[in-house]
Amino acid sequence: MKSLFDHTISRKNTASVKWDGLQNRFHVDEALPMWVADMDFAAPQAVLDAMQERVQHGVFGYTLRTDSYHEAIKMWMADRHHFPIETSWIAHAPGIVPGTGFLIEALTNPGDKVVIQPPVYHPFERIIRGFDREVLRAPLSFDSKRYQMDLNALEDQFKAGAKAWILCSPHNPVGRVWTEEELRAAGELALKYHVTVISDEIHNDLVYQQYRHHPFASLDERFKEITVTAIAPSKTFNLAGLQTAAMIIPNAEMLKKYRKVLQKYSMEGANTFGVIALEAAYRHGKEWLDELLDYLEGNLATLQQLLKEKMPQIKVIQPEGTYLTWLDCREMGLNKEEMDHFFLQEAGVAMDEGHIFGEEGLGFMRMNMACPRAYIEDAVDRIAIAWQQRDK
Ligand SMILES: Cc1ncc(COP(=O)(O)O)c(C=O)c1O
């Protein structure tokens, strides 16, 4: 039976970063875009209906975040993530990336050290440096099958005087959904060394069946006091263009500092459609999300099967969450330039190169599989055919 998500929607000429921004990012006019993390699916019908209704009204003046908006966030966090939160802890962010910059400014000082765990979402490093802070790396450990938190590396960097740690949970690009044990152990270290935790949980809803996401701050009252939890409906419901996210900050002092920075940049305003879409998604999007997760698991199984048949040199690192797959391409025996050239120019598949996530990502590619299954089939065919041509 065809799924709702099999339906292909052309995104060309919609000012889509992923589809219309190929020239900017990759200097090519044509390629199958499987890079930046948004989905090629329409948002849930309830979200579209709520936005249509708002369009019909016709007046788009300055907008408030209502009690009902905050209630929707609280309900979602309690029901989906077993994390009861208070309205007073919720602050706005015009996206997790800009919000993370504001947090760095609010909670650390110039020259302070901030820890990341590469290979990791590459803007973290840019943001830290952009605010004149120093990046400390505690790379994940990897046994060629599964990534884990390297608690020794983390402790070394905390000990080296880190002021903050950006936790990516679930982890982009390797797809780990951190276990309760891992998070508790890392949290104890953060407490011991007085490190503030910025827990980027933007992928929190995109977790596969056998796994469970644990909001870091929910695990321990003491973690709550040192942590900001960054959430948004943007990945889950494909609403990134609406630039609406939330920072959950239970510590009143930290919240005050964050709000001050928001004010400084005059970034407190609400996007009328972002507010409408967030509320509709969190109130009515559950069934759609469950269907999406089933479909993504199907995409993953298809990708794994097709690669096994047609391109066994590429191994999929089993994702536990996110719609991003981390492809181990080291067996292809290509150097950095050859690999970038092969996938983009020879195969015509535009993916994020592993090395942009840190040197640990060399030999890997990140494929975004949030697309109709036919695109996955097309991508593997393109790669396998280009590889055969190379062999000739
Ligand atoms: C871990 C992580 N954080 C943040 C973002 C982007 O957040 P925003 O669009 O809200 O700035 C992404 C997008 O891929 C991400 O993977």
| Class inferred from helices and paired strands | alpha/beta
H-E order: HHEHHEHEHEEEHEHEHEEHHHEEHEEEH
Number of strands: 15
Write down the overall mean pLDDT: 97
CATH topology of the largest domain: Aspartate Aminotransferase, domain 2
Q: What is the overall number of helices?
A: 14
Name the CATH homologous superfamily of the largest domain.
Answer: Type I PLP-dependent aspartate aminotransferase-like (Major domain)
Number of domains: 2
What is the highest CATH level, the class of the largest domain?
Answer: Alpha Beta
How large a portion of the residues is in β-strands, by DSSP E? Answer: 5-15%
Low-confidence stretches: none
Rg, Cα atoms, Å? 21 Å
Specify the biggest β-sheet.
7 strands, mixed
**Could you give the distance between the termini?**
40 Å
Helix content: 40-55%
Question: How does the overall form come out from the CA principal axes?
Answer: globular
Task: Note down, in words, how this protein is organized.
By secondary structure, the chain is of the alpha/beta class. It folds into two domains: 4-44 and 286-391, Aspartate Aminotransferase, domain 1; 59-284, 3-Layer(aba) Sandwich (Aspartate Aminotransferase, domain 2). The protein contains 14 helices and 15 strands. It has helices at 17-20, 22-26, 45-57, 67-81, 96-107, 123-130, 151-159, 180-192, 221-226, 252-264, 272-284, 286-310, 336-346, 373-391; strands at residues 32-33, 90-93, 113-116, 134-137, 141-142, 147-148, 162-168, 196-200, 227-231, 245-248, 315-317, 324-328, 349-350, 352-353, 364-368. The strands form four sheets. It has a seven-stranded mixed beta sheet, sandwiched between helices. A four-stranded antiparallel beta sheet has the order 11-12-15-14, with helices on one face. It has a two-stranded parallel ribbon with strand order 1-13. The longest helix is centred in the C-terminal third of the chain and has 25 residues, at 286-310. It is globular. Residues 37, 95-97, 121, 168, 172, 200, 202, 232, 234, 240, 245 line the site of pyridoxal-5'-phosphate (PLP).
